[in-house]
Amino acid sequence: MDSTSAVYLLCAGVAWAAGLYKLGELRAAPRDRTRWALCAALLCLAADLTLAAPASIVQINRVSGIPNLAAPIVYSLIVGLAVSVQVLLMCWRDSSERAWPRGRRWFQVYGVVIVSLFVLFALGDTPDERLIDFDTYYARTPYIAEFIVIYLVLSGTASARIVWMCWRWAPVAGRPWLRRGLRAITVGAVLGLAFSVLKLIAVVARWFGVDLDVLSSRAAPAAACVGTVSFVGGFMLPAFGQRLTQARRRIDRYRAYRALRPLWDALRRASPDIVPSVRLPWWDLELRLTRRLTEIADGRLALRAHFDPGVAPAAYEVGREAHRSGADLHAFVEAVRLRAAVAAKADGVEFPADHDEGGRHQPLGGTDGLGELTWFAAVSRAFVDSTVVATARQRTVRSGPGSALAANETPRT
After folding, report:
1. Which candidate in 134, 147, 202, 301 could, as Cys together with 120 as Cys, close a disulfide (CB 3.0–4.6 Å)?
2. How far separated are the first and last CA of the chain, in Å rounded?
3. pTM of the entire structure?
4. Residue pair 38/22 in contact by the 8 Å Cβ criterion
5. What are phi and psi of 271, to 5 degrees?
6. CATH 1.20.1070 domain span(s) along the chain
């Protein structure tokens, strides 16, 4: 197998994998016309690349016994790809119920064009098998020249229309992954337009006796292969992108769950009764995360009698000196207060009720609008910062006696 065939078949493999995957999804919604249009586009692209490989062309011609029969087949698939993509974009932009009547007319018109391509090929004479330069070799042959020009003009016009549709729609598309998919399709359509234009230039040059075959046999296929990857990516991004977002969100929530452990563990040791005896399934991250947040909130409330009113001012001072600000500063102060409260409870130190700051010092989520999970994760990360806690401890000692941090050289967690 030559290198050109290998490149074509490699790109075709990408398209086949995507097309067959989406075809399998049709079982869940067999009447979804949008999915049908997407499957048609991907499978036309995959079949076109497979049959356009020189090795495949040889086999088609050999089995059929008709020289260059692969040409009308491949070109018809290009036309089918063009109409499928346009119908798909209409279904994405509008509802499939609104887009389908127009899409059906497009299929009918392009179906007539495909039939005309086979008729023109049958009327023409192509005795010599051409694997790569069919377009330029037969550029001046009656009926075949018309056959070539029709498919190039039609595919180029369709690519230009796809570029125009995606370019206008992408900035206003609601879903982020849909916008990214439309931009990727735009790139693929631009390269598809380049494919048609380069081949058409080479064909017209042949009419005037000028040899620009390199544009048709080298440059155009290269543009088509790169455009294929962009096309497939654009088709799949709206569906797979959302799953990537969900997977990333799950990873972020798992990291936050892990980040909560130091704070949760300290509060659990200080108040063991905040942790129920019922074990949770290890695979249910959301349930475990909800329970951990609840236990941290309960543990914080259980320390309300042990919050030292002298800790917060000293912690704010230390935090500002460390160039902390906003939510980061509030999380640091809360972490220092919690460490002091844990140490105070361990030593049986309590403070008068009118000095209790456990429930009113800082609203959960912080003043910057952070969510509860993000807020407690930030507090937990600051909770284990022994250097700044030691500095805050020294500052609290200077502020006056009676502080739990002053009474404990090493806060126990």
Report:
1. 147
2. 68
3. 0.64
4. yes
5. -135, 80
6. 3-240
CB 36 within 8 A of CB 99: no
Phi, psi of 123 (to 5 degrees): -75, -25
Three-state SS for 299-362 is: HHHHCHHHCCCCHHHHHHHHHHHCCCCHHHHHHHHHHHHHHHHHHHHHCCCCCCHHHCCCCCCC
Q: Give the distance from CA 226 to its chain's centroid.
A: 20
Can you tell me the distance from the alpha carbon of 307 to that of 380, in angstroms, rounded to the nearest whole number? 17
**What does DSSP assign to residue 218?**
I
Express each pLDDT in 246-290 by its tens digit.
888 888 888 988 999 999 999 998 888 888 878 878 788 888 888
Q: Between the ranges 11-25, 194-208, 308-322, where is the mean pLDDT highest?
A: 194-208
* Distance (Å, whole) CA 294 – CA 372: 10
Closest to 269 (Cα-Cα) out of 230, 246, 302, 229? 302
- In the structure encoding, which two tokens stand for residue 84, read together? 């499928």
| Residue type present at position 128 | D
Cα(192)–Cα(174) distance, integer angstroms: 26
Using the 8-state DSSP alphabet, how is residue 275 labeled? S
138: Cβ–Cβ under 8 A, 6 or more apart, which residues?
Answer: 124, 126, 130, 144, 145, 148
Cβ neighbours for 356, distance < 8 A, ≥ 6 positions apart:
304, 305, 307
Q: How far is CA 50 from the centre of its chain?
A: 27
C-alpha span between 67 and 127 (Å, rounded): 6
48 closest CA partner among 229, 214, 228, 230: 228
| Rounded CA separation 184/229 (Å) | 9
Residue matched to tokens 């698939």 = 77
Neighbouring C-beta atoms of residue 97, cutoff 10 Å = 9
**CA proximity to 126, closest of 141, 136, 113:** 141
- Specify the pLDDT at position 407: 40
Q: Which pLDDT band holds residue 88 (cuts at 50, 70, 90)?
A: confident
Q: How confident is the model at residue 353 (pLDDT cuts 50, 70, 90)?
A: low
Phi, psi of 237 (to 5 degrees): -60, -45
Assign domain 3-240 one CATH number from 3.40.50, 1.20.1070, 1.10.1060, 2.130.10. 1.20.1070
pLDDT digits (tens, 9 = 90+) for 42-69: 888 888 888 888 888 888 988 888 888 8
